[in-house]
Amino acid sequence: MFKNCVISTKAKVISIVSAILLLILAGFIYFRFYFVFGEGVKAGELNYCTYKGYVFKTYEGKLIQSGFKAQSVGTIQSYEFPFSVESKTVADSLMRCSGRHVELHYKEYIAPLPWRGVNKFVVDDIISVK
Questions:
Q1: d(CA 10, CA 23)
Q2: DSSP count for the chain of H helices, then E strands
Q3: Is the CB of residue 64 less than 8 Å from the CB of residue 78?
Q4: Cα end-to-end distance, the chain, whole Å
């Protein structure tokens, strides 16, 4: 049945090169979108947390941290931490905490995914609310 099933050298090379390219692509996608580059905690006054988007509805928020920075000479601006939230329960809790001082645990990714949010910082837990 399989007596004449000999794969040519050219087909073997194409198969191996295709497999290697597929592995490289999978590795790139993993490290670009799913690898957690950093984790940390940010504290400040929660400005807002909203549910928005055209195709992918995501939870987006902004935390205003204490201190000031200069965007350009002669200007002063507060430190802002834009973030996305994956969990509906965390987002609902944040929506009730607008204007309050919160400490948020976040994960930093190299690039955002449209269904995860528009920011590379993704809040996954609320540590404290004051």
A1: 20
A2: 2, 5
A3: yes
A4: 75
CATH code of residue 97: 2.40.50.140
Q: Quote the pTM value.
A: 0.80
110: containing domain: 36-129
16 lies in some domain? no
CB of 90 closer than 8 Å to CB of 114? no
Query: In the Cβ-directed half-sphere of 65, how many Cα atoms lie within 13 Å?
Result: 13
- pLDDT tens track for 87-98: 999 999 999 999
**∠ CA 107-76-112, rounded to 5°:** 25
Exposed, middle or buried: residue 76 (CB in 10 Å: 0-12, 13-18, 19+)?
Answer: exposed
